[in-house]
Amino acid sequence: MTTSPTTPSPETVSFDTVANAEATPDQEMPYAELGLKPEEYQQIHDLLGRRPTAAELAMYSVMWSEHCSYKSSKVHLSTFGDKTTPAMKEHLLVGIGENAGVVDIGDGWAVTFKVESHNHPSFVEPYQGAATGVGGIVRDIISMGARPVAVMDQLRFGAIDHPDTARVVHGVVAGVGGYGNCLGLPNIGGEVVFDPSYQGNPLVNALCVGVLRHEDIHLANASGVGNKVVLFGARTGGDGIGGASILASETFDDTKPSKRPSVQVGDPFMEKVLIECCLELFAAHVVEGIQDLGAAGISCATSELASNGDGGMYVELDKVLLRDPSLTPGEILMSESQERMMAVVTPAKLDEFLAITRKWDVETAVIGEVTDTGRLVIDHHGVKIVDVLPRTVAHEGPVYHRPYARPAWQDGLNAATLSGPDADPQHVRPSTPEELRATLLRLLGSPNLSSKAWVTNQYDRFVQGNTSLAQPDDGGVIRVDETTGLGVALSTDANGRWTKLDPYAGAQLALAEAYRNVATTGARPLAVTDCLNFGSPEDPDSMWQLVQAIEGLADACQTLGVPVTGGNVSLYNGTGEPGQIDSSIHPTPVVGVLGVIDDVTRATPSGWTVPGLSIYLLGTTRGELDGSAWADVVHSHLGGLPPRVDLAAERTLAEILINAARDHLVDAAHDLSEGGLAQALVESCLRFGVGARVSLDAVCARDGVSAFEALFSESTGRVLVAVPRSEEVRFVDLCTARGYPALRIGVTDDVCQPGAGVAGAPDEDHEHEPALEVQGLFTVPLAEARTVFDATLPSHFG
Amino acid sequence: MLTGARIGVVTFPGTLDDRDAARAVRLAGGEAVALWHADADLHAVDAVVLPGGFSYGDYLRAGAISRFAPVMGSIVDAANGGMPVLGICNGFQVLTEAHLLPGSMIKNDHLHFVCREQVLSVENVDTAWTRLYSVGERITVPLKNQDGQYVADEHTLDELEGEGRVVVRYRDWNPNGSRRDIAGITNAAGNVVGLMPHPEHAVEVGFGPDGPRGPRTGTDGLRFFASVIGSLVG
User: Fold this and answer.
1) In the A/B pair of chains, how many CB contacts fall below 8 A?
2) Residue B107 in contact with partner chain A when CB distance is under 8 A
3) How confident is residue A766, by pLDDT bands cut at 50, 70 and 90?
4) A515 within some domain
5) What is the ipTM of this complex?
6) CATH assignment of the domain containing B86
7) β-pair partners for A370
């Protein structure tokens, strides 16, 4: 056979076989169209000792993709494992490498959690991209043997007023809600960020957490010769096939359709049924090993199960139930049709297994069995089309040491500071009471600081009846054990602007904030998951950002004593020419922290509910404004260096917050982040509509900052707490004993004082309404703040 | 505590709030009995809750496929014989599809899924499910739906109003465009009630809507379940 187009005789099988590959060694294969480099194709050739069949090429191409193989990040990701000390593994039941990490939370309970990206599909087709992002992470959690109990989503869009943003926002929010709501999983928090750097590259990350008993942990491996390989759930269709047309090359037939949709289509109803079906299968102890089908579909599930097991696997591909009978073997192997699972089942338990899937009306096919050959062999209609060593597909793909270097533009970016004596004077700071008040309201109504209720009110936060805290509180808190109240808290964070200024520090700041948020709810941080969203690994600038962020995060995890248990890397988030300052998105390492709390009814909310509480500011305020919300909103400025990272301080602060919650010393606690003290005060007031009267004098005097800096600096390690008068002595002792700065700055109040000469003070008609009063400077009635806070998202997306 | 009342909670494929409804029954002092859509046997229950969710994915039309489940035949017969039946959200949709209650639910007028803490007024306290409330009482209960806009023809609406069959009405804000702010109705006999809001999410301090005692302390939904248990035992 030659490489020129030929028409096979009708008698010939219409697909490429191992025998055919051996007989036609010179047949050119469309590896480039499938995203493989020439040297990668040569490597496959060398592994097999012949050219790959079309089906083998399909498998290798998807499994060796950046998304599945981590070929550019692998050498750096090992840092997480290297820096995890034995002490950090104390609570770790399953670590990196499985579908998700599993953490011991005590009393025989375990939780499994992970955050993953679905960025590129969500730009192409926002609704389905986001929906199937939720679906994929939920199946990862199920496949560990857990019941999913909550989801969170981290969404980043382009500029709020860009003409394309509304399309993406509407689709993504409806997709996350449409899928998650239909699964009966409470959505307990997340992030919504608008920034021009995400124009054309929105980030859609989704996190799921599940609960299980220690003995229920399931792993993805195929062991026990003769055990059956079972595919169940939705049928396999032509959706989600990696963007290319192996079909035409494979069949040498130009008359068939060659383009398949590359974005998957989700069916949340099927997934809900699959969750309940899997949980019943686990409870009946009829599953030996299990793997969900996500990226790379059957290619991934068969090769990973076989590679993790102790033998080989034989599969009859024509047993796979199809939605579309015209699919080629390569397409069946690559299809990313959703809501499918693959299990390994002993012959003795197969009938019981099938009875349970039948009860749930879940279609099931026995497609193969575990063998002792050590090879993954796949037949199609009795003819061998795949014969490979499974680990060469699943785990021994190419590994790249990509070049990386500090970008040429980095020094200039860091020099453009708004803080300290080098600050450019043209970036005017507000100073009068009127200007400070106007700045507070301007930030409050800015897209990233305004209320996210327009988004979160489209998600169910009540289902399952175990939600103790959800957005807008600092972390989501879910009850695990209904008899004891044992539960978990979760928070995620990333600040792309800070990470752009310093990727090492930026990743640490993301961890520090998520860790602080979890502790703010009263939970003890235990473990970490991360989703590293970066630009092209082939751009040394982006690669440097990735390497710096991984090192920063791994170092910080070690200092805080919390291990990374799993996560995901999303690269190629950029459309510009390499080497420019705006080639890619802001590097965005989303870090999720999971904590445990003995009794969720003691979790601390973010707002005060009654007047008469003392408000304390914990931590030190420095004049840190680079990368801040003020710099962004008022001056459209990004430059300088991010706030200082002090992990020892974060650890001490967390201990104080956890002890204070346990001993009922605080009624409310809220972390200071974007927008600084001003934003935190307003949010804590608006949470339950109770106002506050504070003075900045003591902060300014102690920390040597101006009123402007006290209000808008974004120094880390700071939290606002509201303490009942009866507990003040104990609370202050708690902070003093640990040497942590604590300053009483005011009180909560449900009426404001008649203002004497301060900006925005209410007239006589309104002086009895709740307000935030900054003594000697200004007053903001909460009704006015509420209007500003709530208006922004509805005005753009209503 | 009252005991002895067996309350069935039905699970269809895609039901989401069945475990929540069972918890509400237990917290109200009853015994929750799981009923399966494909099993026509009601297992000698004294009353039935059809919980919320997206049964059959709301495909075709919310509740349209579930009404044909084997268990529904038995429930329709029992309801016509006087057994108390409560449909919540998707369960309400199933009850209208099964013609136990008039009218129907269409997509929310603003076209979005909505989740909020909803203020309601209780207008009929003579049903099996509301006798522990007082007329005009304001309660706060979570609401969450995509297809929650209650519609019926004017004649039916007038009849519901005239016979006092509007059980609860939305207050402060109509979250989905429902005709005449209707959030829940009953049949003429008062044993079958359908609600769009979710009382089973407001039954336990710490996990409900915000209440007068603080964040998430609202338990206004519990009396729907206590009412029926009281009427069965009492």
Assistant:
1) 87
2) no
3) low
4) no
5) 0.95
6) 3.40.50.880
7) A313
